[in-house]
Design the sequence.
């Protein structure tokens, strides 16, 4: 499926300048004609009109309307998305290491289950895949930058431990993960594994806009059961925000997966690793601005030619 999305949709209100441009154009044209009628040779005007099947002012108006449309769509962050088959993808795995990940509602703990599932994910990837790892609590921590040394990544995953830093920085983690994939020439995917909701740092909406602009897909996995589990004898409930995680994923062409047990968590990550069809997106802003510039140059050239002919 293909479609057009916008990272800054509120800018589309500027399209209202188009009817204003059309009205202004014709008002100015009528005013110019009314002045010209006082001094013009009607026979010469009719002859000239017969030689121009398409009046120049319609061409000028069309160029202006298209140029304005291109500029507005560029400012709105127009992005074209389509489904494509790809077995070459670079990944950053972002794993929540907040204290709630010690909960035992998913055996042995939420973090332990996530570590096992990420290990299965790495085993299912093509050996040429680049994979990075970010651990996060109140702030993201880069554990390893994208590399094809998957054994080294696996070692870092197994070494993850609970952070003493409070809060859950999902937005900041997404931004950090996107930065790690900036130089990738393959399709780019971030997998966020968390049992919480964003509570500190950058907002998820800002992070998603940044990811969309960099053509990065985000898959989110919510870990934990509704009943919750124990942490040192204290009951802990699942606190992830399903709506927030769904919005993060969907806006970047990814998916949200609720993982209520270790089996589903492993299957989900193995499925992501083996996924063939992904939503590919690319920004159109630069191309639209270039088109608008070319149209402005064309209008200027036509105006110059018209002025030169009028002087003959």
Sequence:
């Amino acid at each position: 499926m293909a479609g057009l999305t916008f990272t800054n949709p509120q800018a589309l209100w500027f399209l209202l300048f188009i009817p204003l441009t059309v009205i202004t154009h014709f008002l100015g044209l009528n005013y110019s004609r009314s002045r010209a009628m006082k001094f013009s040779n009607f026979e010469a005007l009719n002859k000239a009109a017969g030689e121009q099947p398409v009046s120049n002012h319609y061409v000028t108006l069309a160029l202006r309307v298209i140029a304005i449309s291109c500029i507005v769509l560029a400012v709105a962050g127009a992005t074209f998305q389509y489904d494509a088959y790809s077995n070459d993808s670079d990944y950053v795995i972002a794993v929540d290491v907040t204290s709630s990940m010690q909960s035992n509602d998913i055996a042995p703990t939420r973090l332990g289950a996530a570590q096992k599932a990420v290990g299965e994910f790495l085993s299912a990837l093509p050996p040429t895949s680049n994979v990075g790892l970010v651990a996060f609590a109140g702030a993201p921590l880069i554990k390893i930058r994208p590399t094809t040394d998957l054994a080294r990544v696996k070692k870092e995953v197994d070494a993850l431990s609970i952070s003493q830093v409070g809060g859950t920085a999902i937005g900041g983690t997404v931004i950090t993960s996107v930065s790690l994939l900036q130089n990738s020439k393959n399709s780019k995917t971030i997998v966020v594994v968390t049992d919480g909701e964003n509570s500190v740092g950058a907002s998820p909406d800002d992070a998603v806009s940044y990811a969309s602009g960099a053509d990065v897909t985000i898959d989110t996995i919510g870990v934990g059961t509704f009943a919750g589990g124990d942490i040192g004898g204290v009951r802990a409930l699942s606190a992830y925000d399903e709506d927030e995680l769904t919005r993060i994923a969907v806006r970047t062409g990814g998916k949200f997966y609720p993982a209520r047990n270790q089996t589903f968590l492993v299957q989900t990550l193995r499925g992501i690793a083996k996924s063939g069809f992904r939503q590919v997106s690319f920004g159109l802003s630069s191309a639209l601005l270039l088109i608008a510039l070319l149209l402005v140059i064309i209008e200027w050239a036509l105006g110059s030619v018209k002025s030169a002919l009028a002087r003959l």
Notes: Residues 2-77+285-310 form one domain. The chain has two domains: 2-77+285-310, 86-277. The longest strand covers residues 78-85.
